Queue: 4 jobs
Job 1
Amino acid sequence: MLLPVLLFAVVLVDSSQGYVFFAGGRDGWVLNPSESYGHWAERNRFQVNDSIVFRYEKGEDSVLVVAKKDFDSCNLSHPNRRFADGDSRFEFERSGWFFFVSGAPGRCEAGQKLVVVVMAVRRPRWPPVSAPPSLSPTPVLPPAASPPSETSDPATPPASAPSPSPKASARPPAFPPIPTGETSVPVLSPAPGPSESAATAGAGDHSGKWMLRIATLVGDLDRLWRALRALYHPRNFYVVHLDREAPAMERQALAARVANDSLFAAVGNVVVIEKANMVTYRGPTMVANTLHAGALLLKQSKDWDWFINLSASDYPLVTQDDILHAFSSLPRNISFVEHTSRLAWKEEHRAKPVIVDPGLYLDKKTNVFWVSQKRDLPTAFKLFTGSAWVALSREFLEFCVWGWDNLPRILLMYYTNFVSAPEGYFQTVICNAPEFAGTVANHDLHYIRWDVPPKQHPHVLTLDDLPQMVSSGAPFARKFPRDGHVLDRIDQQLLGRANGSFVPGGWCVGDPPCSEVGDMAALRPGKGAERVARLMNGIIRSNKFAENQCR
Ligand SMILES: *[C@@H]1O[C@H](CO)[C@@H](O)[C@H](O)[C@H]1NC(C)=O
Ligand SMILES: *[C@@H]1O[C@H](CO)[C@@H](O)[C@H](O)[C@H]1NC(C)=O
Ligand SMILES: *[C@@H]1O[C@H](CO)[C@@H](O)[C@H](O)[C@H]1NC(C)=O
Ligand SMILES: *[C@@H]1O[C@H](CO)[C@@H](O)[C@H](O)[C@H]1NC(C)=O
Ligand SMILES: *[C@@H]1O[C@H](CO)[C@@H](O)[C@H](O)[C@H]1NC(C)=O
Ligand SMILES: *[C@@H]1O[C@H](CO)[C@@H](O)[C@H](O)[C@H]1NC(C)=O
């Protein structure tokens, strides 16, 4: 049978170059639209000079523009504006929040109301970053799950991480170690020049960027905001995702905060995924979400080196200047994926069960369900498992996202029915791809403290853990309580971050400090850079690098 398909897009542009939105789409301004107004507003992106048109039966209804408190309480007594002509057009002349309610009695209470957040500036979603300095690490934080799928690994605890102390060995280390002294590092060191080790980097003009992908729990907006500020560097890219569990208002509020932040707006390197994905605890939808964020980054820019996924309960232990400096000397092809092939109890409990993730096809969140039949262990490839926290090289992410080799796609389909897919997908792909197996570093860049024996979730970190966090050399730690002295202490002692502001770095100028971007290439690495370099010496610049690969 022939199925002719015609696709077309119509964009209405008026003289002032604004878009015209029709409230509620096809249904118009009615009592019970087929798509809720909250959902409709969330699908659209409103900018200054756009207009919204309300269509309804003249005489039957009206539109009131009201203040937030009157919106909340459906108080119709003193609207800012009132329209009743049946085809009412309202132009957004400023950014911020706009509240619309129906003027017909009882309808506001029944839900005929609409909130719109208008973005501050009309700009492409992902403006080019100005002349990139020649440095490289590109952290990207992927979205976190809701609730975050812990990387818990009761039988094979975090242990497979190589010890940070490089041991003398017969074989030469894969890469020459960077000397790290105990003394504090000079302030204001010049940005490293184009890295000769950037074999695949072409001109070597990568600016240091990570992609930050964060997904968080309901009500976690403030925590996410704090982590974002602690992790921010103008050279990195950040993709932020609040999953579908978060109320639409919260996602809009996050987008509005990002759009309204003058520094984020000026640099344009923080992107909020506004069309939220459904993400199920332990389900494959988390992997889909991570790949989605990765695909977004690859599409927007090739100018970054590592894709890192974090959640709102993660926090950095070193400054971004430290990370950029320490990573600038690493080969760009290294991916950090903690892994092991010793599945142990996971063989029975992860690899053999077959699950279905309703997040793939239902629009309400429910838990994964188990199919009664079990399946055999695979023989077409070897299974690996490990930490769900990964830092992937751009090359490897391209391999996974583009799928010119069928392996990443086949494994994605296999993991669709796998319990805790995020703890195995990237591990199994990288170790079964000969061209990438030699690039995997067996570490997840996190300090995570497990119970002995490990339970489902790791310890919530407290002040007592601070010395171990620091001595681990890990750039990130998890998981942290929503509010705790430990984060304040990390801000104070490790990051030098003042309450509410960014972590000071070489890029900071303006008054107050870091309110403007100066020289993005200027790095001021401190003690944190030494700690990370020591860790890297242990992981990558030692013979352990190859010994710990894919075993
Ligand atoms: C909105 O339109 C006015 C008038 O056409 C124009 O001056 C202004 O720059 C526009 N604002 C934005 C943000 O596009
Ligand atoms: C509506 O708001 C006005 C002004 O704030 C107030 O005087 C009035 O009592 C409110 N009405 C209701 C029903 O809350
Ligand atoms: C934007 O920021 C200003 C002050 O910095 C604040 O008054 C305003 O409410 C913010 N707007 C939004 C939409 O968050
Ligand atoms: C990425 O990060 C989230 C936390 O935001 C985590 O739950 C998820 O499992 C991670 N890993 C993968 C492979 O998606
Ligand atoms: C990774 O890059 C380094 C340095 O650029 C190179 O020497 C090495 O051969 C590469 N490794 C693989 C497995 O391609
Ligand atoms: C700054 O810190 C104080 C005390 O820890 C806290 O009460 C306050 O809310 C913080 N302010 C901001 C803007 O985070």
Note: The pocket of 2-acetamido-2-deoxy-beta-D-glucopyranose (ligand 2) is lined by residues 73, 75, 77-78 (CB under 6 Å).
Job 2
Amino acid sequence: MFKGRSICALAVAALATTAQCQQLSYEDSVTALAYGNVATDTSAEGTVWLNVTGFAVDKLPHIQEDLGIHTLDNLKTLNAIAGLAQDAATKGQWGDIVYLYSAFAMNGHSEYLNVSTVEMQESLLDAITNQDSGEIDHQLADLYASTSSSKFLVDAFHGLKSKPSTPSKRWLREVCSNAHLAVKNSCRSLLQNVRGNATWKTGSPRSICKYGCCISWSANATFQVENLTNAANYCINACGTSNVSCEVYGVKLQGTLVDQCLSNRATGCR
Ligand SMILES: *[C@@H]1O[C@H](CO)[C@@H](O)[C@H](O)[C@H]1NC(C)=O
Ligand SMILES: *[C@@H]1O[C@H](CO)[C@@H](O)[C@H](O)[C@H]1NC(C)=O
Ligand SMILES: *[C@@H]1O[C@H](CO)[C@@H](O)[C@H](O)[C@H]1NC(C)=O
Ligand SMILES: *[C@@H]1O[C@H](CO)[C@@H](O)[C@H](O)[C@H]1NC(C)=O
Ligand SMILES: *[C@@H]1O[C@H](CO)[C@@H](O)[C@H](O)[C@H]1NC(C)=O
Ligand SMILES: *[C@@H]1O[C@H](CO)[C@@H](O)[C@H](O)[C@H]1NC(C)=O
């Protein structure tokens, strides 16, 4: 997963084995990730959880929901990130957790991991922004900068600037958004696994991701994966040119009404 000399970080982080590897420290692993120093993991699919219940509410006011992802392509990376986040919690490295949770939510997709990418900056900004006022909480930004293991992250938290909110284009059934944009090519690839797929889904996690694109839905439903096709396809056609973020309201998944989202993260569109 990690390029070059950090190649063993995955094993260290996920399995805590150092047998064949020179050990990469926790700090080095976070730094390698934050610099985008990861190779694409073409390994495997599966479900991974990043559970944050019980993590300090006062330190992480915007990160309190357990997050599960069914990934079609990036199982090892997600396991490594989830492992690092558990370490971060025991160390009180709140800034690291904000970054790791963001990376996890975006399917650990290598093109989004570098802290300087538009996608990661947006996610870090969300974590320090008061949802009601839209203002940056500078105390939180300082807290996260002072509890980050990597200089890249410290700089990122210091440099975040609030954006003027951009109005979303609203239709009757769907909203195209400028936030949390996913690369359309990733979404098309994801759709290839969804279309004609009769596998049953129920319960959690309520997301399925491939590369830089995730489909998520707002409520528990029991349905077949292919039932996600129409809304996702609709979004790809209705929104954007090369990127898409879109929510469709009132999608019926074999009897259950949900809002379905297509974006760069498992946590929804906004
Ligand atoms: C991460 O972003 C920085 C700043 O844009 C860039 O200098 C660096 O090369 C990137 N890292 C990788 C591994 O591409
Ligand atoms: C994480 O939380 C989910 C539900 O919130 C639960 O189903 C899952 O078993 C938990 N996983 C771990 C490893 O605690
Ligand atoms: C169908 O969807 C499930 C996800 O629930 C996935 O595990 C499986 O690989 C998909 N099948 C194909 C052919 O993509
Ligand atoms: C999800 O909904 C199904 C019925 O559609 C139900 O059997 C199942 O227990 C629910 N799961 C959760 C985690 O609520
Ligand atoms: C969901 O998919 C199943 C086949 O997998 C199909 O029979 C059913 O009509 C679909 N339901 C909806 C509401 O699209
Ligand atoms: C799509 O997203 C990429 C990465 O954020 C960006 O470089 C590109 O300009 C975007 N394209 C459009 C048309 O918005």
Note: Confidence is low (pLDDT under 50) at residues 1-21.
Job 3
Amino acid sequence: MSWFPTPVRLSRHCGRLVVVPLLVLGLVVYLLVPTTRIENALRQLYLEHGQYRHPQETLPPPVTPSAASGTLAKPADICALRFGNDYLRSFSRTATRYCDAGSSADLTCFSHKLDDKKTDSFCLGGPASLETTQKRIELDCTIRDWAEDDFSRNVPQFRDFPLYWYNTGPRAIFNQHIKLQRIAQAATTPSADAKGFSLLVQREDNHQNLWHSMMEIMSLTLSLDVLRTTINTKTGKPFFTHDDIKQSRVVFLDKLPNGPYFDLWSIFAGKLPMRIQDMSAMDLATTNILVPLPGSSNPFWQGDWLDLHCGESTLLKLFSNRVLDFYNEFDTTTAVQRPPTLTLIDRKEKRRLLNKELYFEALQKKHPEVNMRMVDYAALSLSEQIHISHTTDILIGVHGAGLTHGIFLPPNSTLVEIQPPSLKHKGFHNMAEALGHRYFTCHGSEHEIPQGNGDWQHDDVFLEETAFMEIMDKAIASMAG
Ligand SMILES: *[C@@H]1O[C@H](CO)[C@@H](O)[C@H](O)[C@H]1NC(C)=O
């Protein structure tokens, strides 16, 4: 039912003929050119065939907004509304036009209330043009007045869109980068010509932090997934289709340096990314714009301090597979076929595990059957980091963004989180459960910490050797079932 060809169809029937030689070619190219180019070469496969190698494209079939309102089977299922396809469906239901009848541009926004605090929204608009002196995007749109029906459907008014941290989210983007107004010459630009999407991205200042960045990038993919699963009643087709990927590009609105996750932003954009200050009017000419959900609206920020017990999440597994595919990680060997591999995250700043070298050595002596490594992820490219994680069965780290790598472990792995003495954070536990991984945690002991200042974010963590060995024994034993 998905508009993506199903993986079975591609690999079993027509696909293998094409895919295998291209993979071989890819490998040859890999040996000859720098890594960034190979990523592009293999990515062509996706752009051409609409198919990554991981089989899990688990998106629900597209629905029309009105029909969608009846499809929430269990409206009370908080887990599905946050982490399952009902999350996407909730947005689909609310597809609403925001411009008045005299506007030549469209602005359609989608919203979902995840908790009691905020209603999250994102918008799709077009055609858009670029005012080049101030690098401001313009849309011929006047926001219409809210009618009875809008109120009864609980659709938020444009002026009520909330603010998010680090100056992100639709409200911030509209305020700073988009001008909605009556544009005199706009009438001469036929809106049907709008081609491709400019994905307008305003990153958080925290763009070096893996967890923050993955939440942001995933929020962009969730926005696109809503568009892929919602029929535009005007065209009878989904708002965003696989063909649109080729025509789309990420447009960075922020002025932050590229950072380690720059490439991944283009996971669903076939054109090279640009910064808005480098764009010409032609680059934006008659494209549609997407003002996506911000990272902090991501449902995986929810319940950080609670055990959610929501089980596995189709949305997070889908994201995991997509990122693995983007970085060409399609290793299918399992722990059964190779020696179990354990990776200890070697933090070099803040919250370091005291005596880790000694403990690690002792652990290696005790479990010679396990392949072990201590890895300073921060010294590696994201692609290298993900390769390590995807060949790891047991990932261990002190609480911190490095544990985000749980997302890239192979299915059915084990995550071990060592928490600072009094911390009761549940985010990585919930994440592990969402991915179907086993999870173990323990707390550091109160101890005199060299250069400690009592702040858990800063201080190194001390764990007795026996406690360390105990939790490692459990984690290793869990691999055996
Ligand atoms: C997951 O791993 C455990 C422990 O090795 C094993 O008993 C179980 O069968 C595995 N489950 C799947 C679905 O592979």
Note: Confidence is low (pLDDT under 50) at residues 1-17, 30-38.
Job 4
Amino acid sequence: MGLKCLVILFGLIKFCKANETMNTDTLSKVADSRATGGIYLTKWNRGLERGHQDTKKIEHRFWSPVQRESKFLSLFTVVTFPNGGCAGASGDNGTCMTARECSSRGGSANGYCANGFGLCCIFMTSCESSTSENGTYFVNSGYPAPYDGTGSCELTVIKSHPDVCQIRLDFDRFSIAGPEQMNHVCNQDQFIVSGGNPIPAICGTNQGSHMYVDAGIGTTNPVKLTFVTSGNPFERLWKVKVTQIPCNTIYKDEGCLQYYTGVSGQLQSFNYHPVSGLQLSNQDYGICIRIERNFCGIQYTACVDTVNNRSRAFTLTGNSNNPVNSMIGSGSGPNNCANDWLLIPCAANVGRLQPAQALCTDRICGGTFAADLSMQASSVLSTVKPFRLWFHTDSVEAPADMGNRGFCLNYMQQPCTNNVI
Ligand SMILES: *[C@@H]1O[C@H](CO)[C@@H](O)[C@H](O)[C@H]1NC(C)=O
Ligand SMILES: *[C@@H]1O[C@H](CO)[C@@H](O)[C@H](O)[C@H]1NC(C)=O
Ligand SMILES: *[C@@H]1O[C@H](CO)[C@@H](O)[C@H](O)[C@H]1NC(C)=O
Ligand SMILES: *[C@@H]1O[C@H](CO)[C@@H](O)[C@H](O)[C@H]1NC(C)=O
């Protein structure tokens, strides 16, 4: 599908339709209207303003199949554009299409695209609605004002095409009530994804974070996104961008709730915040990082914590209101990670020798980030491919675990060398 435009009189008049529905019939109608005084002139008068400079940039070709209108041939040029993504005037992203297509599909036009031939059509929707439009924004009731009320707000996401296999959710705004203080369970507000692969419910503040939902191959049940709000008054605000990912996209790793690309970046657990964040209970998911070309390893370092007098960027177990050492392994001893852990396959400290019995480790927890038992944080290297981490928390924090924030890690991929293969 695309946008097909007939340009008459060297760009003075433009007439655009969805590519698939444009046919010679339309062309003759336009040609006729022009011949009979041009009823389309007012409708497309905006084209008059920008026509001249825009058409210079466009590849022209003559519309040869219209034999009947041969006397107009030299005046007509047909240009086509794909229904691509566009940036709307408001800063939101949309899909480029004609004004008529945009309103018939329930979007709202927000600025121009395709060199002024199309309109950037934004799809924004709220509670109890459904969408099959790529790039729909799911917002709270009353957005951009916050919503302070209780209930359930659901968006049903239907595949725009059977060839869509994943849905990416970008949390442009995400502020709902956080978990309770004792066991960090989301028992007041929750964001729930159902209909795809199992995804843990989350709550709190998650702006800037994302999720991938596996929607299955072919025509499948819709994916439902639900915000449940209950309990104490709270000013909730959300704006979730819902992108439909075609099956043939290079990203194919099923089972990664989060997926990062790039040589370096930052990973955070949901509701991470050094001051007010609380690690969420009942989490169980994988994080994947694309191996960039010519890179063989990945190094993780706890984020710099500038607000606390001791870093709380990695606090998973123990009473992290006090300094807590790192803990490793899957045993049940006091310094093992039986309940909450971040799993980094065969993690080894960088520049610090490990004890002989643990050349590399998998589960890491505690209140200090390192691949050995220590009060001293360390960068950690893993060369297991593909690059993945898994995060698991159980449903209990108190009394042993208190004040844990979760994790914030910076990652940096390591080039292939004699030591990193
Ligand atoms: C327009 O439609 C034709 C066939 O109808 C197709 O070959 C062409 O790729 C389409 N162009 C765009 C930009 O979608
Ligand atoms: C949805 O939009 C994104 C980005 O705008 C694009 O990469 C993706 O291919 C689109 N999906 C479909 C099904 O067209
Ligand atoms: C629009 O897309 C650009 C580029 O992909 C991205 O950087 C930006 O955050 C998007 N804006 C919104 C509001 O989604
Ligand atoms: C660190 O800050 C906490 C309160 O945020 C305070 O109780 C503690 O004494 C401080 N520790 C040091 C060593 O300054």
Note: Residues 24-35 form the longest helix (12 residues).
